[in-house]
What we know:
About 30% of the residues lie in helices and about 15% in strands.
Amino acid sequence: MGKVTGFLEFERNDRDYLPVEERIKHWREFVIPLSEQETREQAARCMNCGVPYCHIGCPINNQIPDWNDLVYAGNWEEAARNLLSTNNFPEVTGRVCPAPCEASCTLNIEDVPVTIKTIECAIADRAIENNWIKPEPPAHKTGKKVAIVGGGPSGLTAAYFLARLGHTPVIYEALPKCGGMLRYGIPEYRLPKKVLDFEIQEILDLGCEVKYNQRLGRDFTLAQLEADYDAVYLAIGAWGNTALGIAGENDFEGAWKGTEFLQKRELGEKVDLAGKKVVVVGGGNTAMDAARSSLRMGATEVVLLYRRTRKEMPANAVEIEAAEHEGVKYHFLAAPTRLVGEAGKLKGIEFQRMELGEPDSSGRRRPVPVAGSETVMDCDVVIAAIGQFPLVDWVGDDLKERGLKTTKWKTVEADPRTLQTGIPKIFTGGDLFSGPALVVDAIGAGRRAARSIHYFLSGKPLDFPASAIVKPEKLPESAARAQNPPLGTAGAPPKRYWMSM
């Protein structure tokens, strides 16, 4: 333990932001890092618990107490080595992860948690600045080739660990660049592309090949991959957008889906919002990103409609607060009923007032419509960001008959421990297996899949110890509360589905 009394001596101190009036004018990152001394003091707050619930709560089992101690001692390079041993995307998770580790911190019982995410980002930033992150190619090559479908966080993570184990990963990416939702779904101000590009290049430099603009079912088939490779890892993200299911949704110019809207800017497509009023429907992180991006694109007003209350919003608490500070207006207990327009041009959105009833399966109170409460709000653009799902239209009857099964949630079935599908040489992970989840969930699945594939290619049993992993479960408290849990609450260690290689 770095400093026995650290959690008593130092208050929680997190990174600050540039003033709203300044940051809203640009797309640059606006987080102000802590100083080295401040970061070491925050690391000193770690109690190095006998049972490190932060480690258990992290989907990739980062060795958090260890690198906290190293940071407090000023041994940054060793802290970086420790962090990189479990996480190949520390610059990313240090910026965009909702920090379930902090929700699990023991300090939540009587205090506020250690600023784990901030410390992680500081370690990663310093590692890049000092050139401590370098490719470590394997000493020997196995001669085995693995096709990875999807160049997002899960696919890239699997490629990273498979390459280090001596195999040759070949990534099939549907878009012009790798990164998946990290690139095409998270705005620049939250995750600078130069940071993402650096971490991706470190992975590719291990000897990973990438075939860009290659979409499964359009440019190649799964049967072709089975014939050409020793194993296949399916890591396609959740690129489908849930429709609002209301009249006029597909009839007017100016009605977009959440991820489609965010993707346009990264692909260089012109989106003109100057002088327009934008309504975003939804309460998750995609809705927050769409709303805050709209302001930076010149929208004069951005309103977010959500059918429940602020308390039930699934987005990260810091994103909800930041969006409000930047000028996004919230309209709660409102559900859209139809889009209104004329001559093919959107003019407004009709919504119905809601009341909260009994809790549903998610634990949140179910919204109940109030009869006769329909109201029309004028707007020029509507962005629907109410949910996402994987696209599985490439799964034909032949694959299903051979054992590749899909679920009603449009995910692919696999062994929840090994991620092996009903076709032995095909594995799956990330959103395609779990449905939309956290970046760290995708990273954890990629790493676990790499272990299974390595064992498969080595002719070893894929079994994990029975007690090692469980199916994913929701955190006992919303991960959104991890940024600032209420005093006197305990974030019980969540069950996760990861085991170290």
